[in-house]
Amino acid sequence: MSDRSNPWQLQTIVSQLRTARNQWRTQNGRVSGELGGRELPSRAAMAEILEALCGALFPMRLGPVDLREESEDFYVGHTLDVALNALLAQARLELRYAARQAGLPDDGVDETATVLIQDFALALPRLRSLLDTDVLAAYHGDPAARSVDEVLLCYPGILAVIHHRLAHHMYRAGLPLLARISAEIAHSSTGIDIHPGAQIGRSFFIDHGTGVVIGETAIIGERVRIYQAVTLGAKRFPADESGQLQKGHPRHPIVEDDVVIYAGATILGRITIGKGSTIGGNVWLTRSVPAGCNLTQANLQHDDGTQK
Amino acid sequence: MSDRSNPWQLQTIVSQLRTARNQWRTQNGRVSGELGGRELPSRAAMAEILEALCGALFPMRLGPVDLREESEDFYVGHTLDVALNALLAQARLELRYAARQAGLPDDGVDETATVLIQDFALALPRLRSLLDTDVLAAYHGDPAARSVDEVLLCYPGILAVIHHRLAHHMYRAGLPLLARISAEIAHSSTGIDIHPGAQIGRSFFIDHGTGVVIGETAIIGERVRIYQAVTLGAKRFPADESGQLQKGHPRHPIVEDDVVIYAGATILGRITIGKGSTIGGNVWLTRSVPAGCNLTQANLQHDDGTQK
Amino acid sequence: MSDRSNPWQLQTIVSQLRTARNQWRTQNGRVSGELGGRELPSRAAMAEILEALCGALFPMRLGPVDLREESEDFYVGHTLDVALNALLAQARLELRYAARQAGLPDDGVDETATVLIQDFALALPRLRSLLDTDVLAAYHGDPAARSVDEVLLCYPGILAVIHHRLAHHMYRAGLPLLARISAEIAHSSTGIDIHPGAQIGRSFFIDHGTGVVIGETAIIGERVRIYQAVTLGAKRFPADESGQLQKGHPRHPIVEDDVVIYAGATILGRITIGKGSTIGGNVWLTRSVPAGCNLTQANLQHDDGTQK
Amino acid sequence: MSDRSNPWQLQTIVSQLRTARNQWRTQNGRVSGELGGRELPSRAAMAEILEALCGALFPMRLGPVDLREESEDFYVGHTLDVALNALLAQARLELRYAARQAGLPDDGVDETATVLIQDFALALPRLRSLLDTDVLAAYHGDPAARSVDEVLLCYPGILAVIHHRLAHHMYRAGLPLLARISAEIAHSSTGIDIHPGAQIGRSFFIDHGTGVVIGETAIIGERVRIYQAVTLGAKRFPADESGQLQKGHPRHPIVEDDVVIYAGATILGRITIGKGSTIGGNVWLTRSVPAGCNLTQANLQHDDGTQK
Amino acid sequence: MSDRSNPWQLQTIVSQLRTARNQWRTQNGRVSGELGGRELPSRAAMAEILEALCGALFPMRLGPVDLREESEDFYVGHTLDVALNALLAQARLELRYAARQAGLPDDGVDETATVLIQDFALALPRLRSLLDTDVLAAYHGDPAARSVDEVLLCYPGILAVIHHRLAHHMYRAGLPLLARISAEIAHSSTGIDIHPGAQIGRSFFIDHGTGVVIGETAIIGERVRIYQAVTLGAKRFPADESGQLQKGHPRHPIVEDDVVIYAGATILGRITIGKGSTIGGNVWLTRSVPAGCNLTQANLQHDDGTQK
Amino acid sequence: MSDRSNPWQLQTIVSQLRTARNQWRTQNGRVSGELGGRELPSRAAMAEILEALCGALFPMRLGPVDLREESEDFYVGHTLDVALNALLAQARLELRYAARQAGLPDDGVDETATVLIQDFALALPRLRSLLDTDVLAAYHGDPAARSVDEVLLCYPGILAVIHHRLAHHMYRAGLPLLARISAEIAHSSTGIDIHPGAQIGRSFFIDHGTGVVIGETAIIGERVRIYQAVTLGAKRFPADESGQLQKGHPRHPIVEDDVVIYAGATILGRITIGKGSTIGGNVWLTRSVPAGCNLTQANLQHDDGTQK
After folding, report:
1. E17 lies in some domain
2. Is the pTM of this model over 0.95?
3. Residue B33 forms part of a structural domain
4. Which CATH number covers residue E43?
5. Do F5 and C71 touch (CB under 8 A)?
6. Are E92 and E153 in a shared domain?
7. Which residue in A302, C5, F42, F144 is a FRET match for E30, CA 20 to 30 A apart?
8. A252 and A147, same structural domain?
């Protein structure tokens, strides 16, 4: 029946939703009002922070369009100030959440968060220099690129790498949730999914990028170039470990310096791609490859393997 | 020539664009001012509605960051009220559009829309409980997941499944256009393309997700896990059906309970993947598979097939 | 140490970031304050312009939801006026930037930009008619499509094609940077990556679309249909060209009229897919195919090849 | 006590506020859910509508700053379309509310509202010409005015008169609530309080304006000029009318053509200020004045009088 | 000279502005970085809070236009939650600032602020009932008022009284700065300037209102009605108090029950206007008046007096 | 008649509005498309600029609430940069408009505008120091003021004076239109109407302020204090000047140092109020007053006079 003044029976639905939430909390051992799943960091807040950091790192190209060199430093300083304060607030939320999860007191959380974000702030100039090598790599790696400036405006791969280098710093600083959210923001707009734990050397370039997946324990050398839909994944987890999968275990590939991996290649497990090798498009690879190797579908035997 | 005061010749362009629109309307048998392609639902409106519904379903994790448990119900009630009214308006647009398309009167449209959205509202608590099983599945399915809370913030697969379960309800309720728009909103931000018609059981988990395609008549059991770039598609439509392709026809796979499908696997046609099977990465499959099967590229002969 | 009143040492960081930027400028031969990387076009501005152009081209379906036919022309005229002025400003930025890059004077830039955008504006009615053929192609090509109106609201492929046809015009007009930004805006929201240089005939349809890559010199005929994850790419660039890769060189496939290419197919190099051919899912192809051919993984020998 | 997880006792306050509302509704004879004080027009909506109408009436001066003459008509047409639709929605709310208040059915409300707003729309060109006479009056009346263009940008009196002429049309059309809201929007930003019922002839000019009050039944001729803090009010209502004050009764002054009233003058009751008279600053007046009179504090005896 | 790349000499101006600020801080005995004038409450924040509180107090008339009675409580609860949390943050800023000014520690500030805002929250139902008497007073006091609903939408006097009653509670609670900001927000939009210290009885009505000033120690009884430009002010402060003016001293009028004061009347000093009196327009009054008196300019001798 | 698909007859109204505009342009001697009333400065733009300048002048009190001293200079520099560029754009519009009005070429306009805004920028530190004297004057002049910080947050008089000192600089620099718009922005939110031409000495304080009017040629000394509804106006312009009123002519009062003027006083004509005088409330004054005079209604004969 369609009652005009009370169409939605909101009281009923709201109360049933509360029941569902309580059921969930009970199932997962939450004490209501205490460990109640609240005060998590916010994805929307992180998106704003990352946009501001991109502007502060590359003011003339990712900052406001009418910026002039005279006022760059004012813009950079003010933007960093706002972004770092906001990031500090998010870091506190994560640390407080982590303390609750671990059943530890959250006394020192504010102090710790401040120290972590101070370190993060001090690392920014080094990250900028590192990112400059990525921009040059993109410029030299794509014959279609007309200028280094164009790279920052148009290449989704660069956007993903900027986010990754910032997220990786957070990951190592003990803020894995903020790191993960940062990575997913880039994933959502580029289709490139790099776990913030992955270690990536200078002059890294991803072209096109949609569908790229790079796992948590992957290690990538310098001057590596990869194309769309490349996976650097884990093999299936062994069944004999009493059912429980071990975490933190190195399980993704090591890619040495100067490697090129063409589109659609799938590389699985803790194997090593030797320095200077080339992996052809759509190649499926679960065994290590020596340096200088040129691997294609034609010269490769498929091995069986499932991946994660 | 560049006339400063009249650079664009707007009158000319506007009038030629009108001619182009009229040509289109004539070609497609539209009567101007009557069936004239207007009053379609709005994608921007649906995006706001879905964001509000996500917040109402998971207030502490997808709602505003400063929410406290005390005021959860107020937030949920108010947010639902706004979202359901807005959804009602969109449903009326779709039903009125459908009536016009079918040449039927649109008398009862407002009444019908109200009933449909009332049913939708009443289903939300059940959908929340169902989604809780998906969250747990993600938490247990990914060794990198640190907590159930993290899953909702960071996993694109969960975002896609929330949208799908809401869209699937709309689809079954006779609102296929709203359903489709909802699915595309998730597709755009996750790269995961699930047709709202697909039936998906509890505890469903998609990891990474970019490039996943699940077709309209696919049926997926409980506790199924799939990875990025998996396709559950249709085979090529047979040529002998007098040229006209039949709609609604079951043409996508049935995936039974406890199946795992690794990245890049392509599964086409109305075949069945038996309970507990594992399909390896990049596998191309157009024939049914019995329960408990462990299929990899190595132990499988490619069959010919094109897909839709 | 955590000093409450000066936690970030902003002066230090700002000054180190300036050092990093100066280093970059020196390395890349920039004269500060002159060629200093500034006054590039803005991606945010282009995103607004393209949204407005979509509304002006399809007012009843991509314009504001409450538009009525009576006032279509007012909406179209006003929206175009705003969008074209904004596009003109972006075009000036690109031309001035290009002049600086080339070491040429930028005297005539404003005049040239006006002429280019005038041509662009005059081309819009023709582009609208061309896009109508794409909408019909989508409607006829997907058995799930219920109406032509639905196509514009729900199909990411259509969104990508609208952006491409606008971007291609800019590309040919000598605004490759605006063109590239426009293409990336579509890439980001659809996962479909079409280089603005690609030439595409009428009645073009991409279904699902995530992961599609179409290269700069690709030529696509009329009534072509392709599915998700299809690549029309370049083969590896020959090593014997004194190290330097040649630009502009035709290096992507020619796809003739009435070809269908199923999901995941990879087609590389300046080869030709003959009229009316069908390329099966996941096929890897680096040799030309005659007209009327039906190619699947089963009836094809893999050839070696890496792609770009 | 300050309970961290439940500081506000929201349930208690919300329920007491509900009790207070119910008490009010009972006292004022409202039936909950039926006449319940809802669906009144919105001040925020009217503010947007009036801003749009100002832009449509004076596109080059109150419209967007980058408008060019070429596209004026597109802007005007599109802006009017949006504004009139929004005004129609507000008019329906007022008429439905008035019907409920009067205990009448609201069947014809939508039809009536449409007719009223159609008339309003058709009156706009005439109102524009009338307002042009006010702009010229301001230009000629203030020696400090440098150009007619400046008047529209800087004179609060003109803003008040534009709002009044629009509000007066609504008032006569049977939309007194929308009229009153429109008048209060101008009152709030200019300090000039003109009741929408007042009749005002062409070429009207208010200088400075703060504190001006013009009552509901005032009648003002052509070419009248008044200064800040002038009151055209009612005298005290007679006590002998059985306690009940009569509404609609003419109770404010008639000001004939070419009158000037200087700052702070108070003119009360249904008296007439004869053609061409001048009323000095701070004069207190409750008796009629013949044509051509020049009245100052010095040549006038104060009469007793209180005003409304 | 106009240097294109450095037109503003920002470094110079920024440094001179800093010098000016430091000079100010030195002059006023501020220790930089400690008492440095920072962390004051924000007017913009208070404006949002007050708008939300108005909506929570009168949801159907000052809340969102599409609210229905069914969902009133959800809206009220959610809106209060947001507004009270924001108000708490502002209260902390004021208390911390006051502690610094007084050279006291700010240890208990957060606790105190919570208690104060809890009291404020609990007082809201009583304030709503009080405001209902003001609304009825306006409805009965103005023959032009058509309905009680109209009063809330259109009468600036009501807006001023709502803000006053909220501000007065803050003032008494020891938050004079928030109180003052709240009063100024109303002053700015209505021209009515009521000091938050003034005590005002039930059923209070101000008509038109522009220019009304009511001082800090004024006491107003029940059922009082006043018109525009009325001043309830202080007389000049006596010169013999060793130059220093005493604060908090009662210095504004006492207005007893059922008094009416017409427009422009000026009433100065700690005098008493007896119950039921009427004060005529423009009357200048510095002596007490017995009950039942009817005072006009004609029957009153002016006394000399200046006012504050 | 109410045609659903074409209710507004927009074509008719738009065309009649165009006719009205053309009539106006013809009457006022405008050449369409050339002098056509366009490219005037924007009030909305000036409002944003002034808000930014207030923040840059008083960063800790009128800037963002979370600013810390460490980052003040970054905020000030970045905010000034944005505000000055925007002001430059407005200045160009005014100068170009003035050139067109005067029939002069607008060649040097951009250069001139840059020089004017450079001067304006360099004057800001001096204006800040001047405003500090006004803040102290308010603090000392009002016994209710608790701290200098409160003055900037709560006193409308200070807001008006900040705007005036900025506007006065623009006025003297040859940007009278921007100056006037700035003054009206303050007038609208404070009810205080100070013509930007007025010259005002240091330590100026206006209390309450609603209804204050200060004319273009008024000259005010140091340490002057005035209250609400005070007028410093012009007497009536003599009739014998061949009908045409002379502009620029000194016609408003000179108020010497240390004068206090109480509420409602009206002071008209080019008279002088001698140093240290006190003018009582509601006094009407058109003759000069010697130094040290204490004037009240009681000891003063009214003289006749009307004012402008």
Report:
1. no
2. no
3. no
4. 1.10.3130.10
5. no
6. yes
7. F144
8. no
In a shared domain, residues B112 and B65? yes
What pLDDT shows up at residue D77? 94
Do F43 and F140 lie in a common domain? Answer: yes
* C170 and C293 assigned to the same domain: no
Least confident of B113-117, C35-39, D155-159, F38-42: C35-39
- H or E segment to which residue E261 belongs: strand E260-261
Q: Is residue D81 part of a domain?
A: yes
Question: Is B99 part of a structural domain of the chain?
Answer: yes
pLDDT digits (tens, 9 = 90+) for B222-272: 999 999 999 999 986 554 455 555 667 899 999 999 999 999 999 999 999
Cα of F90 to nearest chain B Cα, Å: 20
Q: What subunits touch chain C, counting only 3 or more CB pairs under 8 A?
A: A, B, D, E, F
CATH number at residue D292: 2.160.10.10
* pLDDT digit string, tens, across residues D202-233: 999 999 999 999 999 999 999 999 999 999 99
Closest Cβ–Cβ partner in C122, C129, C132 for B13 = C122
Which secondary structure element, helix H or strand E, spans residue C115, and what is its range? helix C109-141
Contacts of C6 in chain F (CB under 8 A): 68, 70
Chain F partners within 8 Å of E39 (Cβ):
65
The ipTM of this complex is 0.90
Indicate if D274 and D175 belong to the same structural domain.
Answer: no
- Its domain, for residue C283, covers 211-239+246-298
Chain E positions touching A14 (Cβ under 8 A) are 74
Distance CA E273, CA E279 (A): 9
Adjacent-strand bridge partners of F219 = F199, F254
- Does A149 score more than 80 pLDDT? yes
Task: Quickly count: other Cβ atoms within 10 Å of residue C202's Cβ.
Answer: 17
Shortest alpha-carbon distance between residue A9 and chain B (Å)? 8
C51: enclosing H helix or E strand: helix C43-57
Which among D70, D73, D75, D76 is the top mutation candidate for probing chain B, defined by the most B β-carbons within 10 Å of its own β-carbon? D70
* Contact across the interface for D306 and E144, Cβ inside 8 Å: no
- State the burial class of residue E184 (Cβ atoms within 10 Å of its Cβ: 0-12, 13-18, 19+): buried
Q: Are residues C55 and C173 in the same domain?
A: yes
Rg (CA), chain A: 23
Q: Which residues does B contribute to its contact with E (CB < 8 Å)?
A: 66, 68, 70-71, 73-81, 85
Q: Are C70 and F8 in contact (CB < 8 Å)?
A: yes
Mutate: best of E70, E72, E76, E110, partner A, most A CBs <10 A: E70
Q: Of A291, A296, A286, A229, which is closest to residue A259 (Cα–Cα)? A: A291
Number of domains in chain A: 2
Decide if A262 contacts A280 (C-beta within 8 A): yes
Q: How confident is the model at residue F230 (pLDDT cuts 50, 70, 90)?
A: very high
Largest CA distance in chain E: 75
For residues C82 and C185, membership in a common domain is answered with yes
Q: Do D70 and C78 touch (CB under 8 A)?
A: no
